[in-house]
Amino acid sequence: MNEQTLKNEIDYFNYNIIEFGSLDIRTAVETAIDVNEGGDYVADCVREFAESTGTPLMDCDIVACVYDEILQHARNEIDELTKFDFCNDGAEIWTAGNYMATSYDWRDNAPNTIKEILDDNNIKLDDLTVKTQWFLEQIDVELA
Fold this sequence. Notes:
The protein is mainly α. The protein has one domain. The chain is built from six helices and two strands.
């Protein structure tokens, strides 16, 4: 048996045993890679979400789990730097889970408010972690 045959058979096994869609897995892992993480980060996000909410593992939206973990990271980092918790202080942003079409959603001018707070505190893009930079890009906040 050659290596390609073995790889193909392992892939067939995984596709038949793992209930998550392969494109959802790909999107979740690509997102993790975008923030300098990997597949283990995705697994940790999904396990943590399942445990904390009592959701069966296979019922989790794995892309939303990753997005939400990134949102919480950005929320905490921005709060530490500015003392502004955007989720509780008038600029609420949440994860709109929809598997491969997962995104962030908000009311009013939440991204503009976050940008103003960061600008008022002289926070530059390079002052922030990759996760927070990625989050800000997703909500269309541009910093110097």
